[in-house]
Amino acid sequence: MFTGIVTDIGEIVSFKPVAQGQLHRLRIACSYDRTTIADGASIACNGVCLTVVASGVAEGKTWFDVDAAAETLALTTAKHWKLGTRLNLERALKIGDELGGHIVAGHADGIATIVSREDLPEMARFELSTTRELARFIATKGSITLDGVSLTVNTVKDVTFSVLIIPHTLDVTTIGGWKAGTEVNIEVDLMARYAARLTEMTV
């Protein structure tokens, strides 16, 4: 589990197919302490929970390898990742850690597309669109995870919604580079999903 609070920005330094193209192995450079990364550890990469299969240090920089399966490549923005792509990173939640965002599974539900960006004094406003299936779980003032970042929904209208981003978040995540047309991974609030399921079962 995660909280949607990004703790580092990584960069893809290697991307190659393995297992007859059914998997792609990514090597991601980061600032984490190598000694704290164990094989089998979970790290959310742009909101996608991936499992570490190897790690090390090269040229003074920590790196870790993860495998992205065909389904991950098909359903998330991982399909667009390449050498040099920057990724929001978050380590798995430990018992006793501060829950600064909201409960995030790291299982992206799909993709949202940036419709517009408005740069305001001291912040930026983004309007996004997603599928009707996912839009039903999005509510004003509710939580949403976009590229691994826990955010509060500002407005909702049909299949579009907006978020306001403060300067700190723009500085410490990849959100500062978002523009119209950018695709991002979206994970809806788990509580909203469960509430909808319970409602369906009682109808």
TrEMBL record:
<comment type="pathway">
    <text>Cofactor biosynthesis; riboflavin biosynthesis; riboflavin from 2-hydroxy-3-oxobutyl phosphate and 5-amino-6-(D-ribitylamino)uracil: step 2/2.</text>
</comment>
<dbReference type="InterPro" id="IPR001783">
    <property type="entry name" value="Lumazine-bd"/>
</dbReference>
<dbReference type="Pfam" id="PF00677">
    <property type="entry name" value="Lum_binding"/>
</dbReference>
<dbReference type="GO" id="GO:0004746">
    <property type="term" value="F:riboflavin synthase activity"/>
</dbReference>
<keyword id="KW-0686">Riboflavin biosynthesis</keyword>
<keyword id="KW-0808">Transferase</keyword>
<comment type="subunit">
    <text>Homotrimer.</text>
</comment>
<feature type="domain" description="Lumazine-binding">
    <location>
        <begin position="103"/>
        <end position="199"/>
    </location>
</feature>
<dbReference type="InterPro" id="IPR023366">
    <property type="entry name" value="ATP_synth_asu-like_sf"/>
</dbReference>
<feature type="repeat" description="Lumazine-binding">
    <location>
        <begin position="1"/>
        <end position="102"/>
    </location>
</feature>
<comment type="function">
    <text>Catalyzes the dismutation of two molecules of 6,7-dimethyl-8-ribityllumazine, resulting in the formation of riboflavin and 5-amino-6-(D-ribitylamino)uracil.</text>
</comment>
<protein>
    <recommendedName>
        <fullName>Riboflavin synthase</fullName>
        <ecNumber>2.5.1.9</ecNumber>
    </recommendedName>
</protein>
<keyword id="KW-0677">Repeat</keyword>
<dbReference type="InterPro" id="IPR026017">
    <property type="entry name" value="Lumazine-bd_dom"/>
</dbReference>
<feature type="repeat" description="Lumazine-binding">
    <location>
        <begin position="103"/>
        <end position="199"/>
    </location>
</feature>
<dbReference type="InterPro" id="IPR017938">
    <property type="entry name" value="Riboflavin_synthase-like_b-brl"/>
</dbReference>
<feature type="domain" description="Lumazine-binding">
    <location>
        <begin position="1"/>
        <end position="102"/>
    </location>
</feature>
<dbReference type="GO" id="GO:0009231">
    <property type="term" value="P:riboflavin biosynthetic process"/>
</dbReference>
